[in-house]
Amino acid sequence: xxxxxxxxxxxxxxxxxxxxxxxxxxxxxxxxxxxxxxxxxxxxxxxxxxxxxxxxxxxxxxxxxxxxxxxxxxxxxxxxxxxxxxxxxxxxxxxxxxxxxxxxxxxxxxxxxxxxxxxxxxxxxxxxxxxxxxxxxxxxxxxxxxxxxxxxxxxxxxxxxxxxxxxxxxxxxxxxxxxxxxxxxxxxxxxxxxxxxxxxxxxxxxxxxxxxxxxxxxxxxxxxxxxxxxxxxxxxxxxxxxxxxxxxxxxxxxxxxxxxxxxxxxxxxxxxxx
Length: 274
Description:
The protein is α+β, with helices and mostly antiparallel strands. The chain has a single domain, classed as Carbon-nitrogen hydrolase (Nitrilase/N-carbamoyl-D-aminoacid amidohydrolase), CATH 3.60.110.10. It has helices spanning 14-30, 61-73, 158-166, 180-198, 247-256, 267-273; strands spanning 2-7, 33-37, 76-78, 82-84, 93-99, 105-110, 116-117, 125-126, 139-142, 145-149, 171-173, 201-204, 208-212, 215-218, 222-224, 230-233, 239-244. Strands 1, 2, 3, 4, 5, 6 and 17 form a 7-stranded mixed sheet that branches. It starts with a strand and ends with a helix.
Protein backbone atom coordinates (compact mmCIF):
# COMPACT_ATOMS: atom_id res chain seq x y z
CA UNK A 1 0.00 0.00 0.00
CA UNK A 2 1.30 3.45 -0.89
CA UNK A 3 2.06 5.91 1.92
CA UNK A 4 2.98 9.58 1.62
CA UNK A 5 5.02 11.97 3.74
CA UNK A 6 4.29 15.65 3.27
CA UNK A 7 6.68 18.59 3.54
CA UNK A 8 5.33 22.05 4.41
CA UNK A 9 6.62 25.50 5.37
CA UNK A 10 4.15 26.65 8.02
CA UNK A 11 3.95 30.13 9.52
CA UNK A 12 1.39 32.21 11.43
CA UNK A 13 -1.11 32.29 8.54
CA UNK A 14 -3.29 29.35 9.58
CA UNK A 15 -5.63 29.53 6.59
CA UNK A 16 -2.77 29.51 4.10
CA UNK A 17 -1.14 26.60 5.92
CA UNK A 18 -4.35 24.57 5.78
CA UNK A 19 -4.74 25.29 2.07
CA UNK A 20 -1.24 23.95 1.43
CA UNK A 21 -1.98 20.85 3.50
CA UNK A 22 -5.24 20.23 1.63
CA UNK A 23 -3.48 20.52 -1.73
CA UNK A 24 -0.74 18.08 -0.74
CA UNK A 25 -3.21 15.59 0.72
CA UNK A 26 -5.18 15.67 -2.53
CA UNK A 27 -1.97 15.06 -4.49
CA UNK A 28 -1.13 12.13 -2.23
CA UNK A 29 -4.56 10.58 -2.80
CA UNK A 30 -4.34 11.14 -6.54
CA UNK A 31 -1.00 9.31 -6.55
CA UNK A 32 -2.64 6.30 -4.90
CA UNK A 33 -1.73 6.81 -1.24
CA UNK A 34 -3.83 5.08 1.41
CA UNK A 35 -2.18 6.96 4.28
CA UNK A 36 -0.44 10.34 4.55
CA UNK A 37 1.69 11.87 7.32
CA UNK A 38 1.80 15.64 7.89
CA UNK A 39 4.67 17.49 9.63
CA UNK A 40 4.73 18.75 13.21
CA UNK A 41 2.75 22.01 13.65
CA UNK A 42 1.68 21.90 9.99
CA UNK A 43 -1.25 24.27 10.60
CA UNK A 44 0.46 26.97 12.68
CA UNK A 45 4.08 27.67 13.59
CA UNK A 46 5.01 30.83 15.47
CA UNK A 47 7.17 32.12 18.28
CA UNK A 48 6.87 29.64 21.16
CA UNK A 49 5.31 32.29 23.38
CA UNK A 50 2.38 32.48 20.96
CA UNK A 51 1.75 28.73 20.74
CA UNK A 52 -0.36 28.43 23.92
CA UNK A 53 -2.62 31.23 22.67
CA UNK A 54 -3.33 29.21 19.52
CA UNK A 55 -4.13 25.97 21.37
CA UNK A 56 -7.28 24.00 20.52
CA UNK A 57 -9.12 20.96 21.79
CA UNK A 58 -9.15 17.53 20.14
CA UNK A 59 -12.50 18.55 18.65
CA UNK A 60 -11.26 21.95 17.50
CA UNK A 61 -10.78 23.39 13.98
CA UNK A 62 -7.50 21.61 13.16
CA UNK A 63 -8.84 18.13 13.91
CA UNK A 64 -12.11 19.02 12.18
CA UNK A 65 -10.09 20.02 9.10
CA UNK A 66 -8.23 16.72 9.17
CA UNK A 67 -11.47 14.78 9.62
CA UNK A 68 -13.04 16.53 6.63
CA UNK A 69 -9.99 15.85 4.46
CA UNK A 70 -9.80 12.21 5.51
CA UNK A 71 -13.48 11.59 4.78
CA UNK A 72 -13.52 13.53 1.51
CA UNK A 73 -10.39 11.83 0.17
CA UNK A 74 -10.92 8.40 1.74
CA UNK A 75 -7.44 8.70 3.21
CA UNK A 76 -5.95 7.77 6.59
CA UNK A 77 -4.13 10.82 7.97
CA UNK A 78 -1.46 11.05 10.65
CA UNK A 79 -2.12 14.69 11.45
CA UNK A 80 1.40 15.93 12.17
CA UNK A 81 0.83 17.81 15.40
CA UNK A 82 -0.95 20.82 16.86
CA UNK A 83 -1.01 22.70 20.17
CA UNK A 84 -3.69 21.03 22.30
CA UNK A 85 -5.29 22.82 25.21
CA UNK A 86 -4.42 21.55 28.67
CA UNK A 87 -5.40 22.52 32.19
CA UNK A 88 -1.90 23.80 33.02
CA UNK A 89 -1.75 27.59 32.76
CA UNK A 90 0.46 28.78 29.92
CA UNK A 91 1.33 25.27 28.71
CA UNK A 92 -0.14 22.96 26.10
CA UNK A 93 0.35 19.46 24.76
CA UNK A 94 2.03 18.91 21.39
CA UNK A 95 -0.44 16.38 20.01
CA UNK A 96 -0.51 14.11 16.97
CA UNK A 97 -4.03 12.95 15.97
CA UNK A 98 -4.76 10.02 13.65
CA UNK A 99 -7.93 10.03 11.51
CA UNK A 100 -9.25 7.05 9.58
CA UNK A 101 -10.59 7.23 6.04
CA UNK A 102 -14.08 7.99 7.37
CA UNK A 103 -12.85 11.00 9.31
CA UNK A 104 -13.01 9.33 12.73
CA UNK A 105 -10.38 10.06 15.36
CA UNK A 106 -8.70 6.69 15.99
CA UNK A 107 -5.81 7.72 18.27
CA UNK A 108 -3.74 10.62 19.47
CA UNK A 109 -0.26 10.94 20.89
CA UNK A 110 1.07 13.72 23.13
CA UNK A 111 4.79 14.40 22.64
CA UNK A 112 6.82 12.95 25.51
CA UNK A 113 10.26 14.51 24.95
CA UNK A 114 10.46 18.32 24.88
CA UNK A 115 13.10 20.12 22.83
CA UNK A 116 15.25 22.67 24.64
CA UNK A 117 18.15 24.07 22.61
CA UNK A 118 20.14 27.30 22.42
CA UNK A 119 22.56 27.28 19.46
CA UNK A 120 24.43 30.30 18.06
CA UNK A 121 22.68 31.72 15.00
CA UNK A 122 19.45 29.83 15.71
CA UNK A 123 16.27 30.87 17.48
CA UNK A 124 16.23 29.59 21.05
CA UNK A 125 13.92 26.65 21.61
CA UNK A 126 12.59 25.92 25.07
CA UNK A 127 9.62 23.65 24.67
CA UNK A 128 9.54 22.78 28.35
CA UNK A 129 8.46 26.36 29.06
CA UNK A 130 5.17 25.96 27.16
CA UNK A 131 4.64 22.25 26.45
CA UNK A 132 3.50 19.65 28.94
CA UNK A 133 5.12 16.24 28.51
CA UNK A 134 2.88 13.40 27.39
CA UNK A 135 2.97 10.11 29.27
CA UNK A 136 1.47 7.48 26.94
CA UNK A 137 3.20 5.28 24.37
CA UNK A 138 0.68 5.02 21.53
CA UNK A 139 0.17 2.64 18.62
CA UNK A 140 -2.75 2.52 16.20
CA UNK A 141 -3.89 -0.21 13.81
CA UNK A 142 -4.36 0.92 10.20
CA UNK A 143 -4.85 -0.86 6.86
CA UNK A 144 -1.13 -0.31 6.21
CA UNK A 145 -0.04 -1.88 9.51
CA UNK A 146 0.34 -1.02 13.18
CA UNK A 147 1.81 2.47 13.46
CA UNK A 148 3.80 3.70 16.45
CA UNK A 149 3.44 7.44 17.01
CA UNK A 150 6.18 9.93 17.85
CA UNK A 151 7.01 13.60 17.25
CA UNK A 152 10.31 15.25 16.24
CA UNK A 153 12.69 15.35 19.26
CA UNK A 154 11.46 11.88 20.25
CA UNK A 155 13.79 10.59 17.51
CA UNK A 156 16.73 11.01 19.89
CA UNK A 157 15.30 8.54 22.41
CA UNK A 158 15.58 4.96 21.12
CA UNK A 159 13.86 3.51 24.19
CA UNK A 160 10.55 5.00 23.04
CA UNK A 161 10.78 3.28 19.66
CA UNK A 162 11.73 -0.04 21.23
CA UNK A 163 8.55 0.21 23.32
CA UNK A 164 6.54 0.97 20.18
CA UNK A 165 8.07 -2.03 18.42
CA UNK A 166 7.29 -4.25 21.41
CA UNK A 167 3.68 -3.02 21.28
CA UNK A 168 3.44 -4.36 17.75
CA UNK A 169 4.49 -1.48 15.51
CA UNK A 170 5.66 -2.32 12.01
CA UNK A 171 5.64 1.34 10.97
CA UNK A 172 6.88 4.36 12.94
CA UNK A 173 5.48 7.82 12.21
CA UNK A 174 7.72 10.81 12.98
CA UNK A 175 6.18 14.20 12.15
CA UNK A 176 8.86 16.84 12.75
CA UNK A 177 10.09 20.41 12.47
CA UNK A 178 13.78 19.59 12.86
CA UNK A 179 15.94 22.70 13.05
CA UNK A 180 18.33 23.36 10.19
CA UNK A 181 21.26 23.56 12.61
CA UNK A 182 20.83 19.99 13.85
CA UNK A 183 18.89 18.52 10.95
CA UNK A 184 21.66 18.83 8.39
CA UNK A 185 23.88 16.60 10.53
CA UNK A 186 21.48 14.36 12.45
CA UNK A 187 18.07 14.05 10.76
CA UNK A 188 18.74 11.31 8.21
CA UNK A 189 21.04 9.45 10.61
CA UNK A 190 18.40 9.33 13.35
CA UNK A 191 15.51 8.38 11.05
CA UNK A 192 17.47 5.56 9.43
CA UNK A 193 18.74 4.27 12.76
CA UNK A 194 15.26 4.11 14.31
CA UNK A 195 14.12 2.12 11.25
CA UNK A 196 17.07 -0.26 11.26
CA UNK A 197 17.22 -1.06 14.97
CA UNK A 198 13.49 -1.89 15.09
CA UNK A 199 13.11 -3.40 11.60
CA UNK A 200 10.24 -0.98 10.92
CA UNK A 201 9.34 1.48 8.22
CA UNK A 202 9.70 5.10 9.33
CA UNK A 203 7.42 7.75 7.82
CA UNK A 204 9.20 11.01 8.66
CA UNK A 205 7.31 14.13 7.54
CA UNK A 206 9.19 17.38 8.11
CA UNK A 207 8.81 21.12 7.99
CA UNK A 208 11.15 22.92 5.59
CA UNK A 209 12.66 26.38 5.30
CA UNK A 210 12.38 29.64 7.28
CA UNK A 211 9.23 30.25 9.32
CA UNK A 212 9.94 33.74 10.69
CA UNK A 213 11.26 34.74 14.08
CA UNK A 214 14.64 33.14 13.38
CA UNK A 215 13.20 29.65 12.97
CA UNK A 216 14.33 27.52 10.05
CA UNK A 217 13.63 23.82 9.49
CA UNK A 218 15.81 21.33 7.65
CA UNK A 219 13.14 19.46 5.67
CA UNK A 220 14.12 16.24 3.85
CA UNK A 221 10.88 14.38 4.56
CA UNK A 222 11.56 10.71 3.92
CA UNK A 223 10.33 7.16 4.00
CA UNK A 224 12.89 4.65 5.27
CA UNK A 225 12.56 0.89 4.98
CA UNK A 226 13.05 -1.72 7.72
CA UNK A 227 16.62 -2.43 6.61
CA UNK A 228 17.50 1.26 7.12
CA UNK A 229 17.37 2.17 3.43
CA UNK A 230 15.98 5.51 2.19
CA UNK A 231 13.13 4.62 -0.18
CA UNK A 232 11.77 8.09 -0.95
CA UNK A 233 12.49 11.64 0.12
CA UNK A 234 11.60 15.25 -0.62
CA UNK A 235 13.93 17.80 -2.12
CA UNK A 236 13.99 21.39 -0.83
CA UNK A 237 10.63 23.14 -0.85
CA UNK A 238 7.02 22.22 -0.24
CA UNK A 239 6.06 18.81 -1.58
CA UNK A 240 5.59 15.14 -0.85
CA UNK A 241 7.29 11.78 -1.23
CA UNK A 242 5.56 8.44 -1.76
CA UNK A 243 6.50 4.81 -1.44
CA UNK A 244 4.85 1.40 -1.32
CA UNK A 245 4.86 0.00 2.23
CA UNK A 246 4.96 -3.79 2.18
CA UNK A 247 4.47 -5.88 5.37
CA UNK A 248 6.51 -8.69 3.83
CA UNK A 249 9.49 -6.36 3.67
CA UNK A 250 9.24 -5.95 7.45
CA UNK A 251 8.94 -9.71 7.95
CA UNK A 252 11.94 -10.31 5.68
CA UNK A 253 14.12 -7.81 7.55
CA UNK A 254 13.18 -9.41 10.87
CA UNK A 255 14.00 -12.88 9.59
CA UNK A 256 17.42 -11.67 8.50
CA UNK A 257 18.27 -9.83 11.73
CA UNK A 258 15.96 -8.98 14.60
CA UNK A 259 17.96 -7.37 17.41
CA UNK A 260 14.83 -6.88 19.53
CA UNK A 261 14.63 -10.61 20.14
CA UNK A 262 18.28 -10.55 21.30
CA UNK A 263 17.90 -7.72 23.83
CA UNK A 264 19.37 -8.59 27.24
CA UNK A 265 19.45 -5.21 28.97
CA UNK A 266 16.59 -4.92 31.49
CA UNK A 267 14.87 -8.13 30.28
CA UNK A 268 12.08 -7.69 32.81
CA UNK A 269 11.25 -4.29 31.31
CA UNK A 270 10.99 -5.85 27.84
CA UNK A 271 8.67 -8.57 29.11
CA UNK A 272 6.44 -6.01 30.84
CA UNK A 273 6.31 -3.87 27.68
CA UNK A 274 4.93 -6.84 25.78
